[in-house]
């Protein structure tokens, strides 16, 4: 992912050097376990432990000679060791014991970063929803005025969407946090399962129950899909805020810095650029889920069709998804809300938003439903002030205000407060 849409803490997990550092750790842990089993001399283990991870540049030099990244890494790692130590590196292992175990650790750490970011977004949405719980605004269906609601109610819906995504993300994070040190085609023919237990235990990973030489790719697909659903939830929030920032609506506005310039030609423009960026990133993240799903099906015990996809899709999906969530949090935290504009919008149609209340009153008074509906609709179609039109139809409109729609609003507030009590 390009730096523009990356946060440093997430991007750092996916560098070539980070990968080789982690591969080195896996090789050292595996050698430790082999030494405990009496299969590697202690002096060789000491040499392997003190050998630093090879640089990405040096691995690249070896790869030009071998056309195989794992063999290039092993050559670069073993290069400074005495031959009597180097021969014990990677004992009984196959390439994807190294790759997939390290990848499981990286995906778990990346998942933790996304989880932390999503928890913060949930908290910010809950706090903003509570702050604006009584900020009355018009609800819209099909983009058309419907009935009064509150801005806090809107934000609460998004908070619960993020909360549901958190549950999916937790499950997916745990699903990818596995490794395997089982040798060619996963039979443990040349390596003791105790080596796997030691390596995975030290890395905080579970083990693939029945490895096929690789970790099952449905695990990775689960994570990519969970991140994609979270991105879609953020997109829903961003779309709402974009629509509320239109000139004729202008009920909210993104924070503007002194350096802000909205258009190269029109100095007056105040565009919802952050919300638009969040929408675009959701499309990108969703796009990565498809190729990762296609990686699930591999030939027999394994093939390499997934490798090229994963090098791009897993990293970029997580980096872009993480950036999107953190940017959404900053947007909500600094959002300017215009309660007066919201209140004015409720009355902008001359009281039409109260049509359902009038209909309910007529029904309660015993009027036939079809007759009552047609009467209220006829008054609404007159144009002008709805209360006046009702009076001309012989209907006493009574008191019409947003409070009529919010008498039971508190039950939603109780549900929202439950989210506040969740651990961040």
From TrEMBL:
What enzyme category does the UniProt record give?
A: lyase
Pathway participation? Purine metabolism; IMP biosynthesis via de novo pathway; 5-amino-1-(5-phospho-D-ribosyl)imidazole-4-carboxamide from 5-amino-1-(5-phospho-D-ribosyl)imidazole-4-carboxylate: step 2/2; Purine metabolism; AMP biosynthesis via de novo pathway; AMP from IMP: step 2/2
Output the Gene Ontology terms for molecular function.
Answer: (S)-2-(5-amino-1-(5-phospho-D-ribosyl)imidazole-4-carboxamido) succinate lyase (fumarate-forming) activity; N6-(1,2-dicarboxyethyl)AMP AMP-lyase (fumarate-forming) activity
Mind telling me which residue stretches traverse the membrane in this protein?
A: none
Q: Identify the residues that the record assigns to the Adenylosuccinate lyase C-terminal domain, covering every copy.
A: 350-417
Q: Tell me which EC number(s) this protein carries.
A: 4.3.2.2
Gene3D superfamilies tied to this protein: Fumarase/aspartase (Central domain), Fumarase/aspartase (N-terminal domain)
In its UniProt record, which GO terms are filed under biological process?
'de novo' AMP biosynthetic process; 'de novo' IMP biosynthetic process
What highest taxon heads this organism's lineage? Bacteria
Please list the reactions this protein catalyses.
N(6)-(1,2-dicarboxyethyl)-AMP = fumarate + AMP; (2S)-2-[5-amino-1-(5-phospho-beta-D-ribosyl)imidazole-4-carboxamido]succinate = 5-amino-1-(5-phospho-beta-D-ribosyl)imidazole-4-carboxamide + fumarate
Q: Which UniProt keywords apply?
A: Lyase, Purine biosynthesis
Q: Which family does it belong to?
A: Belongs to the lyase 1 family. Adenylosuccinate lyase subfamily.
Protein name per UniProt: Adenylosuccinate lyase
- UniProt gene name: purB
